[in-house]
Amino acid sequence: MTKQADTSSEILAQYADGPAQLETILAGLTESDLNLALTADSWSIRQIVHHLADGDDIWKICIKAALGNSEGLFSLQWYWDKPQMEWAKNWSYASRSIEPSLALLRANRQHIVELVQQTPNAWEKSIRLKWPDRQEEERITIGDVLEMQARHIVGHINDVQTIRREHGI
Q1: Where are the domains of the chain?
Q2: Does the global pTM surpass 0.85?
Q3: How confident is the model over 60-81, as pLDDT tens digits?
Q4: What share of the chain is helix, strand, coil (3-state, %, to 5)?
Q5: CATH code of the domain occupying 8-167
């Protein structure tokens, strides 16, 4: 996790490095290893990878919307209407190959890093967002989204490390 004192350049570097960190923790795993989970009710390594790629893909749209229309409202209500486990089922997380998702994650992060670096004041640009558990809308900055996604991937990398340790791989 990043510290509050992290600068925007440090957070952007952590965001950019997320896919490489994930690929490092996945190195050496077999196809059957990817199906391992901590419990029968928790996500497998394979499902975690797909979740990370899809989440990044969704939040990429928020970043692009904030860059282009700061008066707009970014809504994930369509996604938040269903539990994440249902999305995992609907999007076949348990049976798909991870390579396309890893490629998407790498490409999205490279795309966003370049876009943020090339757009003046990108870090501070914002958009309106309504969280599912709050009545009022709030402004979320691109910096907020980048930091959230940088932390998100680290959290799931830790989950994969725990699964590997528990299964002795």
Answers
A1: 8-167
A2: yes
A3: 999 999 999 989 999 888 788 8
A4: 65, 5, 30
A5: 1.20.120.450
